[in-house]
Every structure is written in structure tokens, then in C-alpha cells.
Amino acid sequence: MNQEKTGAFIAICRKEKGYTQAALAEKLGITDRAVSKWETGKSMPDIGIMQELCELLDVNVNELLTGERLNMDNYKKMAEENLTELARQEELNNKKLLTLENVIGWTASITFLVLIFSASFAVEQTVWRIVMILVGMAVFVTGIYYSLKLEHEAGYYECQECHKRYVPTMKAVVMAPHWGRSRKMRCPYCGSRNYHKKVLTK
């Protein structure tokens, strides 16, 4: 997948359809700056709006990702390559989210411990002790919430019985007993309750 080639292709198709960057951006609910970044090869369209973009430009997803119109001879080959690349990109993005989850979780936990320790041994005034404990608890709860939110958004969970992969509700992730990134939840496919492990791609 060549971002510059895809960007140039988007620009050509946009002009063929008579859209300005601003007009295309408005139809997609994004900024014209985002469209400009696509066309200069600095970024790629988000997966969430890719289908709508293809419909507006009258191309299919494989053509968009390849950066050229495809004939039937090489369509299947390019489709497989593009699917592989999209899976790789999804895995990389999910790894980044889980890394950020670790950073937030550890930072919140260490901050909490430092504030509690300081309030217990380094501060004499009761008011400041209470303030530090409350701040520590607020940092900890906020950090854990955002860590769980990132874990929920990154990738999927795989049932160990039927091996189906799915995205659970945020409530299920929060309430489930866990060991590392495996959580004990009920599978929406087979109904079994077991430890479902985190996986990065579908």
C-alpha cells in the first residue's frame, strides 16, 4: 500500500467528480485539512469513513487502497494484498492503544502510591493529608477508567470454547474478573463463561 499513490488517486477521482477538497470534506463530516493530508500522502482515510469515501468517488475499497482502477485480472490479487495490509495496520494501531493503556495505568498507580505515602509520612497537617489522599484516589480512578477504555477499544476477545472473536460491552470488561488481559466473560456466540483472551485482529 503506497500512501502517496493512494493520495494522488483520491485527488484525481475527486476532481473527476467535481468536488473541491472542502466540498468532499463536508460530505464526509471531516475537515478539508484531512483531505489535503490524504492527497499529499501524509495520512490515510480512517476505516470508518472509507466506504462512504469510495461511494462518493465511485471507486471500490481495493482501488482506493491500491491507488488505481483495477481490471478483473489483478483484482483478486490486489484485494488479498489490501486485506493483509489492513489487518497489519489494525494490529499496529491496537498495539499502540495497549501500550498507551500500560503507560496510563502504571502512571496512575505510581502517582496514587506516591501521594498516599506522602500523605501518611511526609505531611503533618491533616487537611493536606486529606487533600493528597483525595487527589491520589481521583488520579487512580481516572487512570484505571481510561486504561480499561483503551483495552476495550483495542482489538477483540477470543472465546476459548468456540474461538469466535468479538467486542464485549464496556460494562462486561469493567466487571469481569481478569488475569492480565484475559477476562472471564460470557461468550455471545456459544454462551460459555470462561477466560477470553485479548487478540489484536479479527
Strand fraction band? Answer: 5-15%
Principal-axes geometry comes out as: flat
Total helical segments = 8
Order of H and E elements: HHHHHHHEEHEEE
Question: How much helicity do the residues have?
Answer: 55-70%
What order do the strands of the largest sheet run in, or round the barrel if closed? 2-1-5-4-3
Give the termini distance in whole angstroms: 20 Å
Structural class label: alpha+beta
Total strand count, please? 5
Poorly predicted residue ranges = none
Report the biggest beta sheet as strand number plus sense, adding barrel if it closes: 5 strands, antiparallel
Mean pLDDT: 90
What's the alpha carbon Rg, rounded to whole Å?
23 Å
SSE arrangement:
Elements: H1 3-16, H2 21-28, H3 32-39, H4 47-57, H5 61-66, H6 72-122, H7 126-153, E1 156-158, E2 165-166, H8 170-175, E3 178-179, E4 182-186, E5 193-199
Antiparallel strand pairs: 1-2, 1-5, 3-4, 4-5
